[in-house]
Amino acid sequence: MRLAFILGEIGSGLRRNVSMVVSVILVTFVSLTFVGAAGMLQLQINQMKGYWYDKVQVAIFLCSDGSTAAGCATGPVTPEQQDNLQTLLESPAVAQYVNDFQFESKDEAYKHFKDQFSNSPIVDSVTPDQLPASFRINMKDPQKYQIISETFSSQPGVETVIDQRQLLERLFSAMNAASLVAVSIAGVMIVCAILLIATTIRLSAFSRRRETGIMRLVGASKMVIQLPFILEGVIAAVIGAALASGTLWAVAHFFLGEYLSKQYPDTAFISPGQTLILAPALLILGGSLAGISSLLTLRRYLKV
Amino acid sequence: MIRFDNVTKVYDQTARPALDNINLEIDRGEFAFLVGASGSGKSTFLRLVLKEDRASSGAVYVAGQNVAKISSWRVPRLRRGIGVVFQDFRLLPQKNVFANVAFAMQVIGKSRSVIRDTVPEVLKTVGLEGKENRLPHELSGGEQQRVAIARAVVNRPGILLADEPTGNLDPTTSMGIMGVLDKINQNGTTVVMATHDDDIVNEMRKRVVELKNGIVIRDEARALYTSMIPVVGQSRRLKDASGRDEEPPTPGDRQPGAGEGQR
C-alpha cells in the first residue's frame, strides 16, 4: 500500500514537472556521457597496451633498394652485413638486454603487410621489394631502447632503428589528454546537473507543499514524505545515465566498430560490449549524485 | 491528556513572550475552548502541542509524554495521536472527498481494505455520506470543513486540535460543525478548539480558557465567551497584561453579558 502510494506520488511529481525533469535528464545525460567518454578512452588505452605491450619490439630495418640513409651508402644490405648484425645481437654486450629476436625477411614482411591491410587497396601496389627486411627485438627492459639504437644505427646495412613503444606512448599521452578534457567538461556539467536537480526538487517540494503539510500533520514518517522527491530526482538522473550508456555503446559500435577499425586495422579497438561495464558505474554515479543533492535540498526546503 | 508546566515561548527576545509561564491541564475526553484576541497565544499553544515549535522553558506533556524528549524520528508518532483542523480547511483540491480522507490513512501505511472500511464510516460520522466523489470546490464551506474534520479523526487520534474551525463559516453552518465536534468528543476524543466565535462558545457551555498576551486570564468550566463573574484574584495580573498591550480593545473585551443580551 505504502509502496503503491509512494509510486503514485512519484508519478504525479514527474508529470507535474515535466520540463524540469526533461532538463535534468538531458543535463545528466550529457555530463555522464563525458564521464563515460573519459572512461572509454582509458579502456581503449588498456586495450592497446594489452595488444602491444606484451610484444614490445624494437625494429631494426635493414637497407633496401631505395634507401637513402647514411648506413645504406653501399646499397641494399648484403648477406655479410646481415650476418654481422646477427652476430652483434647475439654478442654478450647486446644479448643481456634482449629476450629474443626474430628476423623478418622481405617476403615475411610482405605477408604480414598483406594480412594487416587486407581490406586496403594499397596491398595491390606494394611488392616485396619495396618492404625492408628487419630484426624484431623483444627487449628485456623496453626502457633500454637507447642502447640498441646507439649500437645499431651506425652499423652498415641498417636503415633505421624504431622503438614502436615510443610511438604508442605519444598516442597514449594524446588520449590521456583527451580524457582529461572530457573529465573537466564532465565536472562542470555535473555541477550543472547537481544545481539543476536541487532546483527541480525545490520546485517540486514547493508545488506540493499542501500535500506535504498535510502528511506532516497526520503523522506520515519522514521517509514517506521525502522519498517521492528523492526518487523523482534519482529516476530522472538514472534515465540520463541510461541514455549516456546507450550513447557510449552506440559510439563503440558504429564509430569504433564500423568506421575506425576499418580505417586503422592495425589497432585494437574496444568492443561495444566492453563499454557496457561503464554503464553500472554511470548509473550509480548519476543516481547517487541526484539522491544526495535531493536530500540536501529537502533538508533545507521541506520541513518534516 | 495535555499538560503545560510553566511553559514560556519567546519568538523574539525583544518582544513580550507569546506564552508567558502557562500552567494548564486538559484531561482526557474534555472539550475546551481557547479564546482570546489575535496574538494572545492560542496558535502558539497549539503549535507547542504538535511540537511544531519548542517551548523556550517549561515542559509540554501530551498523552503523558514530554514532547521535548521525543526524538525527531518519533514526532510523526506523536502527530498520529493528534488530529488538526484549520480555518482554511486545507483540502487537496484535485482529490475527491473520499481521497482526501483516505490520504491521511495512505501516508501512514494503512492497507487498502482498512481504508475502504474506515473512510465511509468516518464520513457518515461527519454527515457527508453520499458525497464521497465530490471534489472540494463542489462542496459548501461547511461541507469542506466536515471533510477536514473527517480527515483529522480518521486515524482515531486521542486529541483533536481545531484552530478557528468556524472562522470562515456562517453561524448556522458553524453550529453544524460544532455538532460534529461534539459528537467526536462524545466518542472519547479530547477536543481543544481555539476560536473567536462567541456565539458558539456561549451555546456549547464547555470549559473556556481565555488567553491574553500569553497569560491565562480565565479558566472556567461550563463557561461563556466572556466571563460573567468578575475575576477578583486575577485582576491585577490582567491589568499588568493590558498595561503592556497597546492594541485597541477587541470585541472580545466587551462588557460581561453584552454578548448574551443580543441573542
Structure description:
The complex is a heterodimer of chains A (304) and B (263). Chain A has helices at 2-16, 18-52, 79-90, 92-95, 106-116, 122-125, 145-153, 164-207, 209-217, 222-263, 272-275, 278-301; strands at 58-62, 98-104, 134-139, 158-163. Chain A has 304 residues and is an alpha+beta fold. Chain A folds into two domains: 2-52 and 168-301, no CATH class; 54-165, Alpha-Beta Plaits. The radius of gyration of chain A is 30 Å and the shape is rod-shaped. Chain A starts with a helix and ends with a helix. Chain B is an alpha/beta fold and 263 residues long. Chain B has one domain: P-loop containing nucleotide triphosphate hydrolases (Rossmann fold), CATH 3.40.50.300. Chain B is built from nine helices and ten strands. In chain B, the strands form two sheets. Chain B has a six-stranded mixed sheet, sandwiched between helices. Chain B has a four-stranded antiparallel sheet with strand order 2-1-4-5, with helices on one face. In chain B, a hairpin with a 2-residue loop joins strand 9 and strand 10. In chain B, helix 3 crosses helix 4 and helix 3 runs parallel beside helix 5 (141-153). In chain B, 40% of the residues are buried. Classes of the chains: A alpha+beta (304), B alpha/beta (263). Chains A and B meet through helix 9 and helix 10 of A and helix 2, strand 6 and helix 3 of B.
Question: Secondary-structure blueprint of this entry?
Answer:
The complex is a heterodimer of chains A (304) and B (263).
Chain A: H1 2-16, H2 18-52, E1 58-62, H3 79-90, H4 92-95, E2 98-104, H5 106-116, H6 122-125, E3 134-139, H7 145-153, E4 158-163, H8 164-207, H9 209-217, H10 222-263, H11 272-275, H12 278-301
Helix pairs in contact in A: 1-10, 2-8, 2-10, 2-12, 8-10, 8-12, 10-12
Chain B: E1 2-9, E2 19-26, E3 31-35, H1 42-49, E4 57-62, E5 65-66, H2 75-80, E6 82-86, H3 97-106, H4 112-125, H5 141-153, E7 159-163, H6 171-186, E8 190-195, H7 198-204, E9 207-212, E10 215-220, H8 235-244, H9 258-261
Parallel strand pairs in B: 3-8, 3-9, 6-7, 7-8
Antiparallel strand pairs in B: 1-2, 1-4, 4-5, 9-10
Helix pairs in contact in B: 3-4, 3-5, 4-5, 5-6
